Predict the structure.
Amino acid sequence: MTIKTEIAQTIVDPRAYADRDRLDAAFTELRHNAPFDIAEPEGFDPFWVASRHADVLEIERRADVFHNAARSATLTDKAGDAFVQFVTGGERNLIRSLVQVDGQEHKDLRALTFPAFTPKALKVLEEQIREIAREFVADMLAKGPEVDFASEVAFLYPLRVVMRVLGVPQEDEPFMLKLTQELFGPNDPDMNREKKEVPPEQVMQLMQQTMLDLEGYFGEVTKKFRANPEACINSLIANAKIGDDYLTHRQMMGYYIIAATAGHDTTANTTAAAMWALAENPDVLAKLKADPSAMQGFIEETIRWASPVKHFMRTAIVDAEVGGKPVKAGDWIMLSYHSANRDEDVFEAPFEFRIDRPIHKHVAFGSGPHVCLGQHLARMEMRILWEELLPKIDTVALAGTPKLTQSSFVSGPKSVPIRFTLAN
Ligand code: HEM
């Protein structure tokens, strides 16, 4: 069966991601009436949509059958796909990072930095991260009682943390932020480099320009860290070898770019969404202040609630079956994390923000061999920020209407105006 045209158009429309009721209505209808079916929106190759939790997990687990690199790993229209093949000489992805490789190459590349992202390895950073959190909290309290929490705190704090972990100097942060937002929000006039609505056929060109800027920057980073290695992720990447050889130019650039971009907009969107939820649920703020052991449930619920990575795509490399439907070799599949995290079969009252859900089953970090490499860092930095901030405020309320980014890939609140009162 084919998904209704109107729904198919909605799930590819970046503007729908800035209008949660519209998006949720579309995915709820899919989960109920067409949980694994084919969408044929105009301008795109047809693709299956996995909207249920169970199907998303199954496809991620069967990584030998459902590959990341065979076609674009993120939703791309036909014009974008043609452009990528033109500039890469036939590949289906503009970059070749961990996300766009499979099998042994993925294992080898992931093993290079995996040890640096374990909870144990990250523990040594706890105090440094807490220092950063304290600076942002002090700054916010000084600016109050009204701030735009998204742009003044949520988007800057994770950036500083990730850049510290990577070894990027503080003065380069605005440049990295700009390029990440251009890469993740090319359809959003506030985010892309033209600062206006651009026609779909131009989106990939803009992303290619952003990529060239990033490559120029990271070329210098490689020289610097090969000459003088340091204890940071970028130095690990610059000096990493598989067998006797350094990474290829494309592998190395992909690695720098995924490490620099995957970690902050995702965490930033989650942090901004969390503050929005706190402003709308004063009982949650009171509970967290009274009982710090509620923090873990809060963090996990904010990640489910925000689901900042809306989807990734997979491609079947052999014929297979999913949810009782036959999938053919070459078929393209959207994994909707946003929808899976609202699956009524797994989450009671999924549209309620509940910090006391018994077991956290969200798939916001994905699953299987590609599961988010930075998940422990994300959890830790968010916990530290709330530990530093919540004891210092008494109440928080919205001081305007929050605004969401227009993006079907990584999106969330770009503006969360709040008014707060200080704790005594
Ligand atoms: C709340 C914050 C975050 C969310 C929701 C998130 C979500 C995700 C998702 C959904 C994936 C794809 C998983 C899959 O295909 O199964 C992913 C991959 C990845 N994430 Fe995160 N992420 C977050 C924070 C971070 C941070 C802080 C970093 C570290 C710098 C990071 C680095 C990565 C990398 C390198 C990958 C690629 C892993 C691979 O393909 O092997 N992420 N993330």
